[in-house]
Design goal:
The protein has helices spanning 6-11, 15-44, 47-56, 62-85, 89-112, 136-155, 163-167, 182-196, and strands at 117-118, 126-127. It is an all-alpha fold. α2 (15-44) crosses α6 (136-155). It is elongated, with a radius of gyration of 20 Å.
């Protein structure tokens, strides 16, 4: 039986794809980071509004909604900064993916229950004014797209300009530099074939 790993799969990709992978991860990391930092920054200055946005979903008890409303902007900013610098990228990617999944579920639950609320993703939140319509499909699509990017970040090596690589904090995920040299990639593939002989 041959076990297929992401590193092994990457070694079968073309050299051009292998060279692009670290940049794809870096872009994904920065997009997720940018969304989280902006979302957290827009909410952190007005915690009462953030709490109101969480309460509008009617999913959490009041005391828990208060804690989440106060803590979420801080968490978003911290995770975003970790992703920008590429530190603890796997953990930051996992937390980002879980946050986005929670947002998708929360928005879908509000939609299914007929609530008319602003998602509060980038500040604001609460009940919509008369004449305003919720934008649930767009919000779900956006958050699901960010969820996919965060999942990519969690599963791949940290990408370019990442402190994880510089500090050797990603030993279980080989750095992309391994795939930058075509000859090296061919040698790795040959050794894998020889081992499985």
């Amino acid at each position: 039986m041959v076990l297929v790993t992401s590193d092994r799969l990457a070694s079968t990709w073309s050299p051009r794809v292998r060279k692009a992978l670290p940049w794809v991860t870096t872009v994904a990391r920065l997009v997720v980071a940018g969304v989280l930092i902006v979302a957290g920054w827009l909410k952190i200055g007005n915690p009462a509004l953030s709490v109101r946005a969480v309460e509008a979903y009617e999913l959490l008890p009041g005391s828990v909604a208060t804690v989440v409303g106060h803590g979420l902007p801080i968490l978003e900013i911290v995770i975003g900064v970790l992703l920008v610098v590429g530190l603890l990228t796997r953990a930051a990617g996992i937390v980002s993916a879980l946050l986005m999944l929670a947002f998708v579920i929360g928005i879908a639950a509000a939609w299914a229950r007929g609530l008319r609320i602003d998602c509060g993703c980038f500040g604001g939140g609460g009940q919509l004014a008369a004449g305003q319509e919720p934008e649930y499909p767009m919000e779900i699509a956006r958050d699901f797209g960010i969820f996919l990017l965060a999942g990519w970040v969690a599963l791949r090596p940290p990408g370019r300009f990442a402190l994880d690589s510089a500090l050797g904090l990603a030993p279980d995920r080989e750095p992309y530099e391994r795939y930058d040299d075509d000859d090296e990639g061919d040698a790795d593939e040959a050794s894998v074939v020889k081992e499985n002989g």
